Amino acid sequence: MFDKALRIEGGPDWHHFHVYTDSALVAVLLVAALLVAILLASAICYYVTRAVMLMIVGRLARQERHKWLRAAERHKVFHRLAPLVPAAIIYAAGPLISGLTFPLIAALGHPLAILAACYMVYTVLRAALAFLDSVSERYSHFPSANERPIKSFLQVATIVLYVIALIVLTSVLLERSPAYFLTGLSAMTALLIIIFRDSLLGFVASIQLAAYDMLRVGDWIEVPGFVADGTVIDIALNTIKVQNFDNSIVMLPSYVLLTNSVKNWRGMTESGGRRVKHAIHFDADTVRFPDEALLAQLRSDIDQPLAALMPDNGQRHTNLGLYRRYLSAHFRDHPAVRHDMPLVIRQLQSSHAVVALEIFLYLNETRWEQYENLQSDMLDHAYGLVPLFGLRCWQEQRPPAGRP
């Protein structure tokens, strides 16, 4: 009677065997036990694999030389790999379920195996994306991270991973070889170029920007025509994010920096000298040779010896010439002026009854607020000395109100 209730027959090599029963109750119990065994095996293997893998990774990550592994652990790369084991068990159990004589349950075997395969692809994709995030985090601690950003390259890798995952998923669902879809993909190259035009242009631009060290995070840039005048805060595959000095954010396409003129102030920051270039305009009628009264006033009021301001070429000196030489001597003694960079006080091309004197020098302060304060103090001093030398700044004569 027991033989009729349950009979097991094996193949010649016992790689395959069949279970027969004449009892409906025994058949139901066997099928239920099989399904429960598959679920229990999946759950037990998941938790055991996860615990063992995380324990090993945790011990290795605590070592100082395994900083990359520590970053991968923080981004849960190995947590996302653990579901591969139960998915593989369910995938392997698919043909076993399909061999059952229960029509409804047997019909679920093949779809269940396909879903398990799709889930394995999804799991590997999630783990790969987390790994790219860990690479980005670890690379950000390198000294060259700002000089050679890799965010654009990681974004390209992300796109490639999504494309590969899409091809594999499609091949699994349609049960075709991935080579079949790759052949069709080559025929769609022109369409893909149109769809991913900005990404391709951005990728090429990112390579050139990185290869020639044209842009770094933290650089102050100006891009005419795009209202971009501020600090670069992010370099991505398709966009460059710039924070203007009014705290507005401008998003620039990456290829714009190669096709348009861009002013990068990094050289000024690295040199440690920031330029002051300012023109003072004088009324030409006030330029004259100084008399004894003016010379006596200058001797008593200025902090430079008057003899040091006199030209040594035998030429007579004007009050404008004395003013120019005084400013030159004063700025050369200023502690904030760079003495290893040009310092010139020169006359510009005159227009009508106007004489222009230009101050050209470099300060050792590159920070914006401190630089503006220093520049303003120095120019205030320059303007305050104008009446002392008998000069008058030129002002445009406007007709009184009500007159044409």
From TrEMBL:
This is Mechanosensitive ion channel protein MscS. Keywords: Membrane, Transmembrane, Transmembrane helix. The chain crosses the membrane at residues 24-49, 84-106, 112-132, 153-173, 179-196. It is found in: Membrane. It holds the Pfam family MS_channel_2nd. GO terms for molecular function: mechanosensitive monoatomic ion channel activity. Its main location: membrane. Signal peptide: none annotated. The keyword Transmembrane helix applies. Residues 198-266 form the Mechanosensitive ion channel MscS domain. GO terms for cellular component: plasma membrane. One of its GO terms (biological process) is cellular response to osmotic stress. It comes from Paraburkholderia fungorum. It comes from the Bacteria.
